[in-house]
Design a protein that fits this description.
0% helix
Length: 571
């Protein structure tokens, strides 16, 4: 099976939130945050009030005074305000949270660097993890700094280098000083956080600011590692996998749940919590007395199988689906009952509908690849990937290929053929959808509710819908000769409900954010850490935000200046 891994979401990014960790631990005097503020390596007597980019309370009609509505606009009136970014000495990032524009950037200080979020400076540290300096003229290397945005954009996390070790910093509050720390994971609601670290020759797990697990780096001659840290969907439980790698022989692994170790296996694969956090399952692999895999649900291990893949709970946590090849047959099992006999590599996990009543999977039969919904076999294709259900419905959605032609299939309806297709965005109730595609001769199109909009040789993003679903918008970038094309190369604009907005030199892309299942952009269900998420990867529309069905906001660049732009539907 040739899968479209371009859409696959990889672990280690995106699903982050935040919380206030416990009180700032004692640090050496050289590591303590500096009281004075400094910029460009010179003292700074005042705070950063002058750097507040957006008026307190967010943009308003009085602040968005510059009318830049195109002359041919009929439905949307666009206004803009120039942001006070000229004095910011380092790279800046923008994103939206609850309709409010947020920003973060790094300041060079007399004794190090600090991160400024919404005009509020954090402590000064010797350096940040993965900090890269201002662009050297002609080098092509731009400024960059590591930062993660929490659920719904409300939290910020970063790693600070200390004179002795490192600290995880969340919302400007530093966690305990350790020899090293690794990227954090957050509970889906953002209220809890956990991360790995090393301290005094031991691997540690920090949960809510406290070290909860502490194990030596070595188990005799074996090296101990921790991986796949994550929270259950309800944020109550936390788990990770311990790996002990032994020289010249098989290693062993085990799962830790809420600080308690489980049974040892040679290998642990595909751990997942049920969405409500009440149950968990994973694949345990052993090699004695013969190679075997077992589905482990809680503390109970199932029968030996040659292959076990993708344990998946229903949204209510009551049902469990997985693939297996063993005595009972090959293919999908639901609640232990074998479904349609099929073969294949089982690359894509089974999926449940939102109400948990329907289950779909991709099966390889003699006639080709099929989508099977509740045992009903769909039509054959050369390849199928990215299977899911439209939000709030029992309609299966997937990407199919016949020869070189690809199309998105919604239920039994095939969309237009294309060489490349994006994920598909739905309204929360599943009644509307949109995506972009590259058709013949490289021409791009946006497809909204089945209607194709020619973009010529311009580029576009995945469309985004307003909360109520009545509005839809997408970015168009670069030169084009289609209906929504821009006037010249390097000019870009937003299109809202088919109406072209003002042209800018650039439209700012924000850090990507993770989103829970239900609504938003459809993509294959993946496991991030130990929790199931539907993610958007680099197709995220963090650079714009529908405040409501009447208001769209985004950040754009014109004549080298940043502008907050608001498009408001005419009454």
């Amino acid at each position: 099976m040739v899968t479209m891994r371009r859409w696959a979401i990889v672990g280690g990014v995106l699903v982050l939130g935040g919380l206030a960790l416990l009180a700032l631990p004692h640090l050496d005097e050289a590591d303590a945050p500096v009281g004075r503020h400094a910029s460009n390596n010179t003292p700074c007597d005042s705070g950063l009030d002058a750097y507040t980019l957006v008026p307190r309370g967010g943009p308003s009609e009085s602040h968005l005074a510059e009318d830049i509505t195109p002359s041919d606009a009929k439905r949307w009136r666009t206004r803009a305000v120039k942001l006070d970014v000229d004095r910011v000495p380092f790279a800046i990032r923008f994103w939206f949270a609850d309709g409010r524009l947020r920003s973060a950037y790094v300041e060079w200080c007399e004794r190090g660097v600090r991160l400024v979020v919404d005009g509020k400076p954090g402590g000064v540290y010797p350096d940040f993890y993965n900090l890269r300096g201002p662009e050297a003229e002609g080098s092509g290397v731009g400024p960059w700094f590591w930062m993660r945005i929490g659920p719904r954009g409300r939290r910020v996390a970063y790693m600070a280098m200390l004179h002795k070790g490192m600290a995880m910093v969340i919302d400007h509050v530093a966690g305990p000083a350790l020899d090293s720390v690794e990227h954090p994971v957050f509970s889906p609601d953002g209220k809890r956080a956990a991360y790995f670290g090393i301290r005094a020759g031991k691997r540690v797990v920090v949960v809510d600011g406290k070290v909860t697990v502490e194990e030596p780096l070595r188990d005799g001659a074996a090296l101990r590692k921790f991986r796949n840290l994550g929270f259950s969907g309800d944020g109550v439980r936390v788990a990770f996998i311990e790996q002990v790698a032994r020289p010249d022989e098989d290693g062993r692994e085990r799962v830790w749940i809420d600080g308690q170790p489980q049974a040892w296996f040679r290998d642990i694969r595909e751990f997942t919590f049920s969405p409500n956090g009440g149950e968990f399952a994973y694949v345990g692999v052993d090699s004695e007395p013969r190679p075997r895999m077992r589905l482990v649900r809680g503390s109970a291990a199932g029968p030996d199988s040659r292959v076990v893949r993708h344990p998946t709970f229903s949204p209510d946590g009551k049902r469990l689906a997985y693939y297996a090849t063993g005595v009972g047959g090959s293919g999908l099992y639901v609640d232990g009952v074998h479904q349609v006999e099929s073969g294949g590599d089982f690359d894509w996990p089974p999926v449940f509908s939102a109400d948990g009543k329907h289950v779909a999977h991709i099966a390889r039969l003699k006639s080709g690849w099929h989508v099977v919904v509740d045992g009903r076999i769909g039509r054959a294709y050369d390849d199928i990937s990215n299977l899911g259900f439209a939000p709030g419905t029992d309609t299966a959605v997937y990407l199919a290929r016949t020869g070189e032609a690809r199309c998105i299939v919604i239920g039994s309806d095939e969309g237009p053929d294309g060489k490349a297709l994006s994920p598909i965005a739905f309204t929360a109730d599943g009644s509307r959808y949109g995506y972009w595609m590259q058709g013949e001769a490289g021409r791009a199109k946006v497809v909204i509710d089945g209607k194709e909009i020619d973009l010529g040789n311009a580029a576009a993003d995945v469309p985004m819908f307003s909360p109520g679903g009545s509005g839809v918008a997408y970015r168009v970038l670069g030169r084009g000769d289609g209906a929504e094309a821009t006037a010249s190369e390097g000019i870009c604009h937003w299109v809202a409900d088919g109406e072209k907005g003002p042209a800018f030199e650039g439209l700012v892309h924000a850090p990507n954010l993770g989103r829970r299942s239900g609504g938003g952009v459809f993509s294959v269900r993946t496991v991030h850490g130990l929790s199931g998420y539907d993610l958007m990867d680099w197709f995220d529309q963090g650079s714009a935000h529908f405040v409501d069905d009447q208001t769209l906001r985004y950040v754009a660049i014109r004549d080298g200046a940043y502008y907050l732009v608001e498009a408001k539907r005419a009454r």
